[in-house]
Specification:
The protein has ten helices and seven strands. By secondary structure, the protein is of the alpha/beta class. It is elongated.
């Protein structure tokens, strides 16, 4: 998916991507559980573990596990880049037609994978896990998570109960060309749905953390909402940014006109001198903001067109073709 990722010809059907940050105690049991479960499924598979700059013995433990299990492949970051970057690297380095993402803290249950694969085989493109019975702190995690999930569902229009569950399964074609930043990994089902993919959610098991402590704080909710706004913009207005800037310019212009009308009303009806009110300055400032916003919109349009032309990309997404011998 990126140019500097080594091209590996050997294909597998299933890739399990595991982002890891300071989980040295969980890794041996996690790998053992994954191998046992994946062996039962009967598909060719690999486990791609991404060490996200851990400062404990996670890398050494992964190296020991990789020596024991050739199915385990390890990518090590120089520094901590975050869960989204770790998942993106795992996807980039994976080879499977089907990609499973799972947490390394043993709270997700590997035995749910085969059930989710059966759901995927029903014709879906994304199967998203729902931790219906979460084993986390009732207020600090569960309550806050429910509120965040409702906000995300409302803004995105994609109704899921649990966006934060890492246990998800994707068809590779759904992820092709997708680049993730910030905390955007949880929004892949939303992005996929907007691109026409069939997304389904199903309950999965959730276990209490056995080792260490959670790396996530309440400040993540604010970051998640900001990332969602960015995704919303890119999904609906990437090819027509002038609509956003034009809408903002219209509001500024309306405010400028309203200020001008109110200023004239004060002068003609109330007899108040224009220089005794802030209306002239406000009207002028809003007018200038309207003009500047329109100009920014035009500049954004130029940049978008340059982006699509330089990348050889299209403003549309094709699911498939019939009787088409040529290539667009």
């Amino acid at each position: 998916m990126v140019d500097d990722v080594p091209k590996i010809s050997e294909a597998v059907n299933l890739s399990v991507v595991v982002p890891i940050f300071e989980e040295e105690e969980s890794i041996p049991l996690l790998v053992e559980m994954l191998v046992a479960e994946l062996d039962k499924i009967g598909r060719t598979y690999e486990i791609v573990a991404v060490n996200d700059g851990s400062r404990d013995r996670s890398q050494a433990v992964l190296a020991e596990a990789a020596a024991r299990y050739p199915q385990l492949r390890v990518v090590e970051f120089r520094t901590n880049a975050g869960q989204t970057a770790a998942l993106m690297a795992g996807i980039d380095y994976s080879r499977g037609d089907i990609i499973v993402t799972i947490d390394a803290d043993l709270q997700n249950d590997p035995s749910d994978i085969h059930v989710m694969l059966e759901k995927l085989d029903e014709g879906f493109d994304v199967v998203s896990g729902w931790r219906k019975d979460r084993q986390d702190a009732a207020i600090r995690r569960n309550f806050v998570s429910r509120i965040a999930n409702r906000i995300i569902s409302y803004i995105s229009g994609v109704k899921l109960h649990d966006y934060g569950c890492t246990l998800k399964i994707y068809r590779r074609e759904v992820l092709e060309g997708m680049r993730l930043y910030g905390e955007m990994h949880r929004f892949v089902p939303i992005y996929a749905s907007w691109m026409g993919a069939k997304v389904v959610e199903m309950p999965v098991r959730h276990h209490a953390r056995k080792f260490g402590r959670s790396k996530y704080g309440l400040n993540r909710i604010f970051k998640v909402v900001l990332d969602l706004i960015v995704i919303k913009f890119f999904s609906q207005y990437l090819v027509k940014p002038i609509y956003v800037f034009g809408g903002a310019a219209a509001l500024f212009m309306a405010g400028s006109i309203a200020s001008l009308v109110f200023m004239l009303w004060l002068k003609l009806v109330e007899g108040v001198s224009m220089i005794q009110t802030p209306m002239p300055v406000l009207a002028a400032m809003l007018f200038l903001l309207a003009v500047m916003t329109i100009l920014l919109g035009i500049l954004a349009e130029i940049l978008v067109r340059t982006y699509f032309e330089s990348q050889g990309r299209h403003a549309y997404h094709v699911r498939g073709t019939i009787n088409m011998s040529g290539k667009a």
